[in-house]
């Protein structure tokens, strides 16, 4: 007698658990009713994965089977992502043209690299900034060429400008005067003051060419390492589910392309001194997206070694709308924010930075209050 296929496990009922499950197995989208979609669509948009969810469901051929309203939202998000990516391709071409006379290699990072390299991590992906890396020794030339081409600094505050120039791995963001696009020009992968500094030289040396002359993208292993460091050591978790989904898709792509690629990933992580954030990435991506990542030995990244931290991280990867976020998740996010900054700066510098930023906010608040007090009051007799 033919064996029956195993029954599918029930889908989670809470939107925060259901969204990762659908990203991992979009074939089950047809099991959801309209009321569930009404809760899921706003959450996916807030988490920055609505376009990706739309792509995955469309690729599975299930969009026509969905209720009309969620299908419309998913199609719109996918179309928006496709338009965004066409604009990104155009901007990358413009950047390459601006820097080509210098002969400086331009290595794309994060979302721009996923899109330009046509990797699964680019599926339905949108992002605010185009990140790329150039040699630190050529940074002044690059910045001058970009300013001539129409990109100008966005930071007006003298402290913030100095903060970027002295301690960060990038110059202040540049915005195009006409198109409004924002670029982040990196010369390293982590802040210069980071506890686990990662130099960009090795990544740039291994980078591979793209269809655009002068533009390169990192290897798959370097993309995973950079994404892991950015997510787990950066302290910014407002798009944590999207970023972990990126890593899962990169891991899945590596598994399909090269049987020994995990050894390459481990070697790159060791050489960069970032085994811990990469171990976090492997463990959490494999646990939240098992079908996407595929079979993976995560014993080296066992949560028994870090039960409190892994518990906080797990809660962070289950997204909630701001109004629905439990107090425990808020406290966990605050802890991760402080932890991220502690990994980016030594204690005295961190204390100075926080004190300066708090002072600025107090002064701005006081200035606004004084402005309100000096505004002419409405004439009640009129």
Description:
The protein has 16 helices and seven strands. The protein has helices at residues 15-24, 34-47, 50-59, 68-99, 110-116, 139-148, 158-167, 201-206, 220-234, 240-257, 261-272, 275-288, 290-293, 307-316, 327-344, 347-374, and strands at residues 106-108, 129-133, 151-153, 174-176, 182-186, 208-209, 215-217. It has one domain (16-366): Beta Polymerase, domain 2, CATH 3.30.460. Residues 1-7 and 378-382 have low confidence and may be disordered. Helices cover 57% and strands 6% of the residues. It holds the Pfam family NTP_transf_5. This is Nucleotidyltransferase family protein.
The number of E-state strands comes to 7
* Biggest pleated sheet: 7 strands, mixed
**Count of discrete alpha- or pi-helical segments spanning 4 or more residues:** 16
Total domains: 1
The CATH level-2 architecture is identified as: 2-Layer Sandwich
Structural class estimated from helices and strands: alpha/beta
Q: Whole-number average pLDDT?
A: 87
Gap from first CA to last CA: 90 Å
CATH fold naming: Beta Polymerase, domain 2
Helix content: 55-70%
**What Rg, in angstroms, do the CA atoms define?**
23 Å
Secondary-structure element series: HHHHEHEHEHEEHEEHHHHHHHH
Which consecutive residue ranges, at least 5 long each, have pLDDT under 50? 1-7, 378-382
Proportion of residues in extended strands: 5-15%
CATH class: Alpha Beta
The spatial strand order of the largest sheet comes to 3-4-5-2-1-7-6
* Shape, per Cα inertia axes: globular
């Amino acid at each position: 007698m033919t064996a029956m296929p195993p029954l599918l496990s029930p889908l989670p009922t809470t939107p925060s658990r259901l969204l990762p499950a659908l990203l991992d197995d979009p074939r089950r989208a047809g099991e959801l009713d309209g009321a569930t979609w009404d809760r899921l669509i706003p959450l996916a948009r807030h988490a920055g994965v609505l376009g990706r969810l739309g792509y995955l469901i469309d690729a599975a051929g299930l969009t026509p089977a969905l209720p009309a309203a969620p299908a419309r939202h998913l199609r719109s998000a996918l179309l928006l992502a496709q338009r965004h990516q066409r604009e990104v391709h155009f901007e990358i071409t413009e950047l390459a043209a601006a820097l080509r006379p210098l002969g400086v290699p331009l290595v794309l990072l994060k979302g721009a690299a996923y899109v330009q390299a046509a990797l699964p991590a680019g599926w339905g992906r949108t992002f605010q900034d185009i990140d790329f890396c150039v040699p630190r020794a050529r940074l002044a030339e690059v910045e001058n060429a970009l300013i001539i081409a129409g990109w100008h600094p966005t930071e007006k505050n003298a402290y913030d400008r100095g903060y970027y120039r002295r301690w960060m791995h990038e110059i202040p963001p540049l915005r195009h005067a006409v198109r409004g696009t924002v670029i982040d020009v990196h010369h390293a992968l982590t802040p210069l003051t980071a506890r686990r500094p990662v130099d960009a030289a090795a990544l740039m040396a291994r980078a591979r060419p793209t269809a655009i002359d002068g533009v390169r993208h990192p290897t798959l292993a370097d993309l995973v390492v950079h994404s892991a460091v950015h997510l787990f050591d950066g302290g910014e978790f407002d798009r944590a589910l999207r970023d972990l989904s990126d890593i899962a898709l990169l891991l899945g792509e590596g598994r399909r392309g090269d049987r020994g690629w995990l050894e390459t990933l481990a070697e790159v992580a060791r050489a960069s001194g970032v085994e811990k954030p990469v171990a976090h990435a492997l463990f959490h991506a494999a646990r939240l997206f098992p079908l996407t990542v595929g079979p993976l030995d995560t014993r080296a990244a066992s949560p028994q070694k870090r039960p409190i931290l892994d518990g906080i991280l797990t809660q962070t990867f289950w997204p909630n709308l701001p109004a629905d976020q439990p107090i425990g998740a808020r406290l966990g996010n605050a802890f991760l924010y402080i932890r991220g900054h502690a990994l980016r700066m030594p204690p005295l510098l961190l204390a100075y930075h926080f004190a300066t930023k708090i002072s600025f906010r107090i002064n701005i608040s006081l200035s606004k209050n004084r402005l309100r007090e000096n505004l002419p009051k409405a004439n009640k007799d009129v």
